[in-house]
Write a structure and sequence with these properties.
Strand order of the largest sheet: 3-4-5
Radius of gyration: 27 Å
Strand content: 5-15%
Low-confidence stretches: 224-228
Mean pLDDT: 87
Number of helices: 13
Helix content: 55-70%
Number of strands: 5
Order of helices and strands: HHHHHHHHHHHEEHEEEH
């Protein structure tokens, strides 16, 4: 077989490029471990407002890293803390940072492990996609406490967005991040509770059987006049109005949290703050907690933008533009409660 000069030149160039790439991988991985350890220390120190961020994901974005890259570097370093041999495997290009971070998810959860298995060897031998699927499958097994049944679904782009939104809402309901399969199972269960005639009939039977006792219990010992107590409950209409301002997401610019969202009081409820629209903010759990603790203050800058700042005046994060416009309406009426001053 005759090999042309061009083919030989191409093979030589490929070998040259391959050698240069392989020679540089150890240095890259060593640098990634250095970055991961620095990120680990930053995350442990907590309050990031002196660095111009209110959350770790926002800090990563400020560095030019995606939140996913930041989490991967942290996971890789945590895996090396649990198993020191991880660093050598990654530097020697036997284990990628992604697979090291995935192995870390198994290493820190005994319920995902198998007796006598070599976790690092398992993930080293798997391809990247298979490694992701392995962690997903083990989490599902741990959740349902039995081998899961695998089913394949195909969605259009619009249907996929519906699944993503369902996952966000089910995660919010359960107070933890759920998997796609758990979200779909919950949605199917709720749908069947409403539309399945067999379930309806069973509920009606149970209701009829409990009705006499329920009536007796409801009438016994009922006071004639009940005291009306002040409540933290926020009217559904008020919540809808808050969501219309900037969507169902945290009001801090750049915050990607769409699951753990809460209503925060600008003037504290415990200090007689109202549940009126102008006294409320739509924040994620982390930003709400920092705001309530006083770690971050909400101020209006000279250019009109509303910004979160730390205790010592460090800028930590702007509110979304449409939120600033919304808050301005109530400031013009005299304050956060949305009432004109006397």
């Amino acid at each position: 077989m005759v090999v042309s000069v061009l083919e030989l030149a191409r093979e030589e160039r490929l070998l040259e490029l391959d050698g240069r790439l392989r020679s540089r991988i150890p240095g890259l991985r060593t640098l990634q471990f250095e970055l991961g350890r620095l990120l680990r220390e930053v995350a442990r120190l907590g309050d990031l407002t002196p660095l111009g961020a209110t959350t770790f994901p926002l800090y990563c974005e400020g560095l030019g890293l995606s939140p996913a890259e930041g989490r991967e570097l942290l996971g890789m370093v945590q895996a090396a803390e649990a198993r020191p041999e991880v660093e050598a495997r990654v530097v020697e290009a036997r284990l990628s940072p992604q697979k090291a971070a995935l192995a870390n998810e198994v290493l820190r959860r005994p319920d995902l492990q198998r007796p006598g298995e070599d976790v690092l060897g398992l993930f080293q031998a798997k391809g990247a996609r298979d490694a992701v699927e392995e962690v997903r499958r083990r989490k599902e097994e741990a959740r349902v406490a039995e081998p899961p049944v695998t089913r394949t679904f195909h969605f259009s782009a619009g249907e996929s967005r519906e699944v993503d939104r369902t996952r966000e809402l089910v995660s919010r309901l359960k107070g933890r991040i759920v998997s796609d399969s758990e979200a779909v199972a919950k949605a199917c269960g709720d749908f069947n509770d409403v539309h399945d005639p067999e379930r309806k009939a069973l509920r009606m039977k149970e209701r009829d059987e409990k009705a006499p006792a329920s009536v007796a219990g409801a009438t016994a010992g009922r006071p004639g006049v009940e005291d009306v107590e002040r409540t933290r409950h926020i009217a559904e209409r008020t919540t809808r109005d808050l969501i219309r301002v900037a969507g169902d997401r945290c009001w801090v610019e750049g915050c990607a949290n769409r699951v753990f969202l809460e209503r925060a009081h600008r003037h504290a409820f415990r200090a007689n703050g109202s549940n009126d629209l102008g006294n409320l903010l739509h924040l994620c759990h982390e930003h709400h907690g920092g705001f309530d603790r006083g770690d971050w203050l909400l101020v209006r800058r000279s250019d009109g933008a509303w910004t979160m700042i730390g205790r010592h005046g460090w800028p930590a994060g702007r509110l979304r533009r449409e939120v600033s416009t919304f808050l301005d309406r109530f400031e013009d009426k005299g304050g956060p409660d949305g009432r004109a001053p006397p």
